[in-house]
């Protein structure tokens, strides 16, 4: 992750923190999507990693 050999760990962390910030606010559609996702999680409508892998593998195997 270092850009140059003498870059310190603190420099890398600061750079990553600064680039990770998004100044643009979330759209109403994005917020609704997040809220729906949270409701799905609370209601137990989710897949484990293994379930997702199995389902995706089945789709890939049929193509």
TrEMBL record:
<protein>
    <submittedName>
        <fullName>Uncharacterized protein</fullName>
    </submittedName>
</protein>
């Amino acid at each position: 992750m270092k850009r140059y050999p003498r870059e310190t760990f603190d420099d890398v962390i600061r750079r990553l923190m600064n680039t990770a910030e998004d100044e643009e606010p979330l759209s109403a559609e994005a917020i609704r999507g997040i809220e729906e996702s949270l409701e799905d999680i609370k209601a137990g409508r989710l897949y484990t990693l293994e379930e997702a892998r199995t389902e995706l593998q089945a789709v890939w195997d049929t193509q």
